[in-house]
Amino acid sequence: MGRYTGPKGRKNRRLGFQVFESAGAVKALDRRPVPPGPTVRRRKMSNYGTALIEKQKIRYYYGLREKQLRKYFDQARRMKGNTGENLLILCERRLDNVIRRAGFTLTRPQARQGIAHRHFQVNGTTVGTPSIVVRPGDVITVRNRSNLKGIYSEIAAADMSQRASWVTFEPGDLRAVVTQVPTFEDVSLPVDVGAVVAFLSR
């Protein structure tokens, strides 16, 4: 399975959170903040069902395939510290998420598309892989093409939400610098990570 291309509004409603930030998906959750399907009395969610929803939040929020998520989980387990916190920090450090959190784009899918079309450079090298994990000192810029600079300058001037404190962004130069590794408190997704760890450890 590749990236998710289905109805984003339904997915937001199913998970009860704005994992997709496009205008239509946000409106769908605001208009009907209940899961899709027949409006009948629903049974209490099981522990398994609750953990599954929390795991799916991470998958769709960061645009991961199941295999990618489990790869990050295996890597997080080998790191020192809390496995769940390490998992989310690894996801936060993905290049597509950093571009979104810096303010280059309005959504993560938009950031992934820009990277896939080779609109961005990291430390002066053009990149095309959204899953690159950034490190402190990395410099992210838009390629020196007038049409790209025009597009991203307009977005950067309009968007002020969810900008990360661990990334310094210069809208005028379309330049972002990763100043430090994010902490668990910097993670932008509210999720019960303990339930996710228990689910992935099965």
Automatic annotation (TrEMBL):
UniProt keyword list: Ribonucleoprotein, Ribosomal protein, RNA-binding, rRNA-binding
RNA-binding S4 domain ranges (all copies): 93-156
Keyword RNA-binding: yes
GO terms assigned for molecular function: rRNA binding; structural constituent of ribosome
Domain Small ribosomal subunit protein uS4 N-terminal: start-end pairs: 3-92
Keyword rRNA-binding: yes
GO annotation, biological process: ribosomal small subunit biogenesis; translation
GO terms under cellular component: small ribosomal subunit
SUBUNIT field: Part of the 30S ribosomal subunit. Contacts protein S5. The interaction surface between S4 and S5 is involved in control of translational fidelity.
PANTHER family cross-referenced by the UniProt entry: 30S 40S RIBOSOMAL PROTEIN, SMALL RIBOSOMAL SUBUNIT PROTEIN US4M
Function according to Swiss-Prot or TrEMBL: With S5 and S12 plays an important role in translational accuracy. One of the primary rRNA binding proteins, it binds directly to 16S rRNA where it nucleates assembly of the body of the 30S subunit.
Cross-referenced HAMAP family: Ribosomal_uS4_B
Protein name, UniProt field: Small ribosomal subunit protein uS4
Provenance organism: Stratiformator vulcanicus
Name of encoding gene: rpsD
